[in-house]
């Protein structure tokens, strides 16, 4: 008897065993699929790049910075950095650096170079940026994997810079539109050079729940939207009401930070620390703040934690230092 015939015969004469095996396999595969689909991610979406600092090259980009710091509170298995990389050696270094930090990522390779930014620091450690154009993160694809991650997104952080090109702008919009209704959407505005305009910002304000902005960016937005010479608090309240936002987070450097909600307001002073550089400090604030909210902390508690984390990051070189336990304590 041929082997194939024998196999079929064995299956025919052992229906109970076959049924049991098939049912078990079906249950296992179904449970795996359900668990995979139920897993929710906190995602940073946008630019992946290397900051070329005076002290050396450091992996950066707001989405990865955000995800890394959120992951230090939620667990790295719950976060994800989404972007695109080139087909070059720098892309290999990016993947190796993210793996070293145990940061999950999905960054397809595309036919453009991996992004870099020349960073210079002033006497107070404040950075300025020269951002290379026509790079990989300008061309983030919206593929099947990206769409699946959108449906599993618990919280999303996105900015304006990665939307300077039509391809990535469309991917970010489609991603947001594919997220569940309960997804917490954070627009960390991150205005850079001339890569923004009023229509872009207005659409992003309407797509987010939380707007994070610094005092200099607030002046730019106030001018673009014709809000006049209102004080920062009034401008934030105006943005909160005009765009139906859940919160506006305003950071003012050494002058402290505010969180404005419809029914409450929080202020925290900026701790005085020895600054190494401020690269990534804002992203660490956003990541810690988001993680705290997802863990059920109040706005005031989340604000306190975010301020403490960002102050520590300012004392370190690079955007992704590991946080000591005393900084992470709630």
Fold and architecture overview:
With 330 residues, the chain is of the alpha/beta class. It has a single domain (41-328), classed as 3-Layer(aba) Sandwich (UDP-N-acetylmuramoyl-L-alanine:D-glutamate ligase). Helix content is 44%, strand content 19%. The chain has helices at residues 3-12, 15-38, 62-74, 89-100, 144-151, 166-178, 198-207, 215-224, 232-242, 281-294, 299-314, 325-328, and strands spanning 41-45, 49-53, 56-60, 79-82, 105-106, 115-121, 127-131, 153-158, 184-188, 210-214, 247-251, 257-260, 265-268. A 9-stranded mixed β-sheet has the order 5-4-1-8-9-10-11-12-13, sandwiched between helices. A 4-stranded mixed β-sheet has the order 3-2-6-7. β8 (153-158), α6 and β9 form a beta-alpha-beta unit. α3 crosses α10 (281-294), α5 (144-151) crosses α6 and α10 runs antiparallel to α11. The longest helix is centred in the first third of the chain and has 24 residues, at 15-38. It is globular, with a radius of gyration of 23 Å. The model is unreliable at 1-15 (pLDDT under 50).
Shape assignment: globular
Strand content: 15-25%
Q: Please, how many helices? A: 12
Radius of gyration: 23 Å
> How many β-strand stretches?
13
State the assembly state of the protein chains.
single chain
- Return the CATH class: Alpha Beta
Helix content: 40-55%
Helix-and-strand structural type: alpha/beta
Order of helices and strands: HHEEEHEHEEEHEHEHEHHEEEHHH
Q: What is the overall pLDDT average?
A: 89
Low-confidence regions: 1-15
- First-residue to last-residue Cα separation: 71 Å
Major beta-sheet overview: 9 strands, mixed
């Amino acid at each position: 008897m041929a082997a194939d015939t024998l196999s079929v015969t064995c299956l025919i004469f052992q229906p109970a065993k076959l049924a049991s095996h098939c049912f078990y396999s079906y249950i296992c595969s179904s449970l795996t699929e359900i668990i995979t689909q139920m897993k929710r991610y906190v995602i940073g979406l946008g630019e992946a790049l290397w900051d070329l600092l005076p002290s050396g090259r450091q992996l950066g980009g707001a989405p990865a910075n955000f995800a890394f710091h959120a992951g230090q509170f939620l667990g790295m298995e719950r976060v994800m950095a989404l972007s695109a990389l080139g087909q070059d050696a720098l892309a290999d270094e990016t993947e190796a650096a993210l793996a070293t930090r145990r940061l999950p990522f999905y960054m397809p390779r595309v036919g453009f170079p991996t992004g870099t930014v020349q960073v210079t620091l002033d006497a107070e450690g404040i950075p300025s940026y020269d951002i290379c154009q026509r790079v990989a993160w300008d061309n983030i694809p919206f593929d099947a994997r990206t769409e699946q991650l959108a449906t599993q997104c618990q919280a999303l952080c996105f900015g304006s810079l990665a939307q300077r090109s039509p391809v990535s702008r469309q991917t970010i919009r489609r991603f947001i539109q594919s997220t569940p209704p309960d997804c917490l959407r954070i627009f960390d505005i991150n205005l850079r050079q001339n890569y923004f305009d009023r229509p872009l910002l207005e659409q992003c304000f309407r797509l987010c729940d939380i707007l994070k902005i610094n005092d200099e960016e607030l002046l730019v937005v106030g001018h673009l939207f014709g809000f006049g010479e209102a004080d920062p608090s009034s401008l934030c309240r105006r943005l909160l009401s005009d765009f139906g936002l859940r919160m506006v987070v305003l950071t003012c450097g050494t002058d402290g930070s505010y969180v404005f909600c419809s029914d409450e307001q929080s202020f925290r002073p900026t701790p005085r620390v020895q600054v190494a550089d401020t690269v990534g400090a804002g992203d660490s604030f956003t990541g810690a703040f988001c993680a705290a909210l997802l863990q059920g902390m109040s706005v005031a508690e989340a604000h306190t934690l975010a301020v403490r984390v960002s102050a520590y990051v300012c004392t370190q070189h690079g955007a992704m230092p590991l946080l000591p336990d005393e900084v992470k304590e709630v």
